[in-house]
Design goal:
It contains 41 helices and 37 strands. The protein folds into seven domains: about 130 residues, P-loop containing nucleotide triphosphate hydrolases (Rossmann fold, 3-Layer(aba) Sandwich); about 90 residues, ABC transporter ATPase  like domain (ABC transporter ATPase like fold); about 190 residues, Rossmann fold; about 130 residues, ABC transporter ATPase  like domain (ABC transporter ATPase like fold), CATH 1.20.1580.10; about 160 residues, Ribulose 1,5 Bisphosphate Carboxylase/Oxygenase, CATH 3.30.190; about 80 residues, no CATH class; about 160 residues, ABC transporter ATPase  like domain (ABC transporter ATPase like fold, Up-down Bundle), CATH 1.20.1580. Helix 26 crosses helix 27.
Length: about 1100
């Protein structure tokens, strides 16, 4: 109605301003841009101060008129000038947007005084009188009625002002007091909302209520100064505000309002427009008069007031949007990129491809992802930023249209065995909440559901425990805090105010008077001791009195249950828990009670949930003493871990309480969380869809089930439906690991983001690859932009766009060679990718295949008999020696199990012990005891000197690691440098030439070549080291040269250059030649490992292993080659 002009309020009749109207006169004001400023403002009227921003309105209102009654020094007084009133106001009040209150206890009901009336209503009710309650019991700031745990809050306080007025009726005193809140447009506020949470506009309007309440008491004559009270208001609320301002003016108050809203300006009796422009060009009155008079003037405000009558005769709507439709990158120069510019359409699937090392990962992760993350962090508070690793700004000219970014890249580590399929996909986190909130706790002894107990039952149980432990005192305590962080000093203050003298904090009995305050960043348990039961069943109370008899015990227990929410803890004199008793969650067979289940009780990463014997690993751990338990960390625990299943939890990882929470289906099937996690995704989904829950739990299930289902279905869609959810992440292949992380992201309903993926097709069979591509399209169809670094042909053909980076690797790459669809790429002759799409590589590459049978066939075969490890079904398999054999099959078929987990360790054992075959009796020496039946025999090993396993384990990403150090070349170079006459003469050993230790390295930068500058709340900045000029070495090391090259010079050398330079050293020459042959010749010896791509890292590992078999100079000179076969 407001927009189409159907509702157009007419301004109230304006009060006339004549020569006899009292005035406020300001003369000779000189503040900010007010220069010798003078004005005359009518009193008893609604006056609007308007004008462009920065024209001087706020200076006049706040610093001149608003400071009239404040004490100021002579300089300020002189700057303010003279302020004269024809009629002196009773007070001058500036109503700005500053907070109304600094305490969270203050709320709207208290501010307008309505809570006193509500307390009277409650205190005079029949129910209150029957319970002996007075109005003071309903105060949450003091008195006996408030909740001591939360400080007081209840149903009325949760209702809005409008809802309370409707509930109480119009004629009650409380309703009348609350009506003024509705008048200022604050009827939506809840009665108990802390005033500290109000916005500036809400706070300003609430302050007006103070003056509204005076209307009936005939108080008038105040000067009210308001600064933009319409902030945050809808036009309908502005209409209400204008009516309020008119009421205040009618009552005799004088109002001066700084405002831009045209509805308010039209309703004013008098307008003063300041300008003509902002800053030094402002500070003057350019027009004043009634709104009608201002409308006739050629001023900025006048023009807008003139257009008021035709504002709804607008031009046809323009549906074009300025929102960017693509990601536009210009001038990227990070790493090896050569001023690259590109465009990626929003909502598209784009593949970045090119030879390894060409700059794909730099473009995708170091620029697009990193800049997206950096921009996101700029939006969070400085306090939050200090806890997050902040990425540096990449070297680019411009990047626009970048949405929030999510990266799914190849991990540097596999994680511990605590990480499972369920935890990585976040399914476990949702299931923990589901079990904690909707599950039923069963007895760990009988397996039956727990029941509720009466106070009589608890009294009998307390006496029973007293008889079982006749010696010493037993403390009766109420649980106050469970697994909550904080110093918890309020608990001690509350205990002291209630006459209690003893608390138990984290298992230690502590006098209240000596309570030190706890570590605020750790979780704590706090119990309040209400009495000590002695051996004769008498009870020593905190005040020193002794009471006897069952009646006294019942009275004390009732008090404990009221504070402990139905729970009571029996504690020994040493502080240990003797029993946990509760009116709910009690075992009818043993009488033992259990605490309310929290999601942490179902987490094997939390001390509250993990099995105490294996600490959530599920594997047997060598025993450790109670003293060691306090200091034993995860690394020390891993050293004591065996391959046997934990006998306490049977591999379930959780303690007895966590294993006893169960969910039931409509068919009566019950499963605990560990039981459910042993299932595959489709089985879990089938179970959850048949849950039997009550009305309260139904809402919880409906909120959690969509999140869980989406992730379970995605696991199926990417071909991982065969994985059990409790499968350890460190047993997954590289391809499985990446798809698991992909399911964690794609299982969510996030849209409008940029997903950056690093070769998700790794380890996928073509059948499963089709599923992956469909999942990527689903991600795109949800409104996301998907960028994939990939070499897979099917993925490229399914993409909306392919960007080929090249043409070569390292310094030979860093350019956009071609860009377009798969079909368009075929027309680019300079694109290796395009030509590969046009015509695939012919096989065999060497012209013919090596013979397997008949003449020239290998004499020796590696034979595995009866392979039965994990999912291997007892088959026999043979591999010809001296040939290239490939093991293939769908993902999860058992390929990695056969080669990596079975053949490699068993063959290594046989070769190490110089055996031609290994039998089942010897398997225990090379495989875990649980896998002793993995095979019957492995033969054909006598021809091998060693076994080299090049798997998908990452090489590590420490900045001090370089290709030369990884393949062992730098150790050789340091030895050669140390053997030079200059080095020997000066006493320098090989360690002197290491840039990781003190000696020859530059100490200014600690051998890094650059210096890290830590910027508070900003990303760390690196600057080149001026001392060594980025060479890493000090002057002493740089003076020692080998064939004209120092250690610093050698680090800057590429492996291609090294193959030529080290022609005089056979070992180093061969190492550099190997790097060149594997396509890594462009890398420098000193390049930092974090800058290597995934493909470069994998080939570097291959070179490292091949280098171990290189012949020495003597062996090569004599024509001897180390035989591997």
């Amino acid at each position: 109605a407001w927009l189409n002009g159907k509702f157009k309020p007419q301004p109230a009749q304006q009060r006339k301003v004549t020569g006899e109207t009292p005035r406020l006169r300001v003369t000779e004001a000189n503040l900010n841009n007010l220069k010798n400023f003078s004005c005359s403002i009518p009193l008893g009227r609604l006056v609007g101060l308007c004008g462009v921003s920065g024209s001087g309105k706020s200076t006049l209102l706040h610093q001149v008129i608003g400071q009239r009654d404040t004490e100021s020094d002579d300089t300020t007084t002189k700057a303010i000038g003279k302020i004269i009133f024809d009629a002196e106001p009773t007070e001058i009040t500036l109503i700005d947007q500053s907070p109304v209150s600094r305490t969270t206890r203050s709320n709207p009901a208290l501010y307008v005084g309505a809570w006193d009336a509500i307390r009277n209503l409650l205190g005079n009710s029949l129910a209150a009188k029957a319970a002996g309650l007075t109005p003071s019991h309903f105060s949450f700031n003091s008195g006996e009625g408030r909740c001591e745990r939360c400080g007081g809050a209840d149903e009325l306080l949760h209702l809005s002002v409008s809802e309370v007025r409707k509930f109480l009726g119009e004629r009650t005193p409380a309703s009348r007091q609350l009506s003024v809140l509705e008048e200022v447009g604050l009827g939506y506020l809840s009665l108990g909302q802390p005033l500290t949470t109000l916005s500036g506009g809400e706070a300003q309007r609430l302050k007006l209520v103070r003056y509204l309440s005076r209307l009936d008491s005939h108080q008038s004559g105040a000067l009210l100064l308001l600064d933009e009270p319409t902030t945050g208001l809808h036009r309908d609320d502005v209409f209400r505000l204008v009516k309020l301002l008119q009421r205040l003016t009618e009552s005799g108050h004088s109002l001066i309002v700084v405002e831009h809203h045209l509805d308010v300006l039209n309703a004013c009796d008098w307008l003063i427009e300041m300008g003509p422009e902002a800053g030094p060009k402002g500070g003057q009155i350019i027009a004043e008069g009634t709104p009608a008079q201002i409308t006739q003037k050629n001023t900025p405000t006048g023009k807008f007031l003139q257009s008021r009558d035709v504002e709804f005769q607008s031009s046809p709507p323009n549906h074009t949007s300025n929102r960017p439709t693509s990601i536009l990158l210009q001038g990227a120069r990070e790493h090896n990129l050569k001023n690259v510019s590109l465009e990626i359409k929003h909502g598209s699937l784009t593949v970045l491809t090119g030879v390894s090392g060409s700059g794909k990962s730099t473009l995708a992760f170091d620029i697009l992802f990193a800049e997206g993350q950096r921009r996101f962090l700029e939006c969070v508070s400085a306090y939050a930023r200090q806890f997050v690793e902040q990425l540096p700004k990449p070297a680019i000219d411009n990047l626009s249209g970048l949405p929030p970014t999510v990266a799914i890249e190849q991990r540097l580590t596999r994680g511990s065995n605590k990480s499972t399929v369920a935890t990585v996909t976040e399914i476990a986190q949702y299931l923990r909440v589901l079990y904690a909130r909707a599950g039923i706790l069963h007895s760990p002894i009988t397996g039956e559901p727990l029941e509720e107990l009466t106070e009589d039952n608890l009294v009998r149980l307390i006496k029973k425990h007293r008889h079982r432990h006749p010696r010493g005192k037993i403390a009766l305590a109420a649980p106050l805090i469970r697994a909550r962080k904080g110093h918890h000093r309020p608990c001690a203050e509350w205990a002291e105010s209630h006459g209690l003298s003893l608390l138990r904090c984290d298992g230690v009995l502590t006098p209240v008077a000596d309570f030190p305050g706890l570590d605020r960043y750790r979780e704590h348990d706090v119990d309040a001791v209400f009495g000590m039961m002695q051996s004769d069943e008498s009870i020593l109370k905190p005040d020193g009195t002794i009471v006897t008899g069952e009646k006294a015990l019942r009275s004390l227990l009732k008090e404990i249950l009221a504070i402990g929410k139905g729970a009571c803890v029996l504690i020994t004199e040493s502080g240990k828990t003797l029993a946990y008793l509760s009116t709910s969650r009690s075992d009818p067979a043993t009488g033992e009670s259990y605490p309310e289940v929290d999601p942490k009780h179902l987490s094997w990463n939390s001390p509250r949930g993990w099995c105490p014997d294996c600490r959530g690993h599920g594997l047997k751990v060598e025993s450790f003493s109670s003293d060691e338990e306090e200091t034993l960390n995860e690394n020390a625990l891993a050293d004591r871990m065996t391959d046997e299943v934990c006998p306490s939890c049977q591999g379930d990882r959780l303690n007895q309480l966590g294993r006893s929470v169960k969910l039931s289906t409509t068919q009566g099937q019950k499963q605990s969380l560990p039981d459910l996690l042993k299932c595959q995704p489709n089985e879990v989904l089938h179970f959850l869809n048949r849950l039997s829950v009550g009305p309260r739990e139904k809402a919880i299930v409906q909120a959690l089930l969509p999140e869980i289902s989406a992730r379970l279905k995605f696991l199926e869609s990417v071909g991982l439906g065969y994985l059990a959810l409790n499968r350890s992440a460190d047993t997954l292949s590289g391809g499985e690991s990446q798809r698991i992380r992909l399911s964690a992201q794609c299982g969510s309903t996030l849209s409008g983001a940029l997903y950056v993926l690093d070769e998700p097709s790794i380890g996928l069979h073509p059948r499963d690859n089709d599923r992956l591509i469909q999942s990527l399209h689903n991600l795109k169809n949800r409104g996301n932009t998907v960028l994939v670094v990939e070499h897979d042909e099917d993925t490229m053909r399914a993409a909306d766009q392919i960007i080929d980076v090249g043409p070569g690797a390292g310094i030979h790459g860093g350019k956009i060679v071609a860009q377009g669809t798969a079909k368009e790429m075929e027309s680019f002759p300079q694109s290796i990718t395009g030509q590969s799409l046009k015509s695939s590589i012919p096989h065999p590459l060497r012209g013919h295949r090596r013979t397997i049978k008949g003449s020239g066939a290998p004499a020796v075969w590696i034979k595995i008999k009866n392979a039965r490890l994990r999912n291997l079904k007892g088959f026999d398999v043979s591999f010809p020696t001296g040939r290239l054999s490939v093991v293939c099959g769908v993902s999860g078929a058992g390929k990695s199990t056969l080669i990596t987990d079975l053949l490699a360790p068993v063959a290594n054992y046989g070769i190490t012990h110089k055996k031609d075959s290994v039998t089942s009796k010897e398997i225990k020496h090379c495989l875990p005891a649980s896998e002793s039946n993995a095979l019957t025999s492995l033969s054909g090993l006598k021809s091998f000197r060693q076994i080299i396993l090049v798997d998908q384990e990452p090489i590590g990403k420490t900045p001090r690691s370089t290709p030369a150090t990884y393949i062992g070349a730098w150790d050789l170079i340091r030895e050669r440098l140390a053997s030079l006459p200059d080095a020997i003469m000066r006493g320098h050993g090989a360690g002197f030439f290491s840039f990781n230790t003190s000696g020859g390295r530059c100490e200014a930068c600690s051998g890094a070549g650059r210096i890290k500058l830590e910027m508070n709340f900003l990303p760390d900045t690196y600057v080149p080291c001026e001392e060594c000029q980025q060479s890493r070495y000090g002057a002493a090391a740089r003076t020692i040269q080998w064939h004209g090259k120092s250690a610093a010079d050698l680090l800057k050398m590429s492996f291609e250059e090294g193959a030529s330079f080290f022609s005089f050293d056979a070992k180093l020459h061969d190492l550099c030649r190997l790097m060149t042959q594997t396509g890594l010749g462009y890398l420098t010896l000193g390049q930092s490992s974090p800058t290597l791509s995934g493909g470069e890292s994998q080939r570097l590992k291959l070179v490292s292993e091949l280098a171990q078999g290189l012949p020495t100079f003597r062996e090569r000179h004599k024509g001897k080659v180390k035989p591997n076969l």
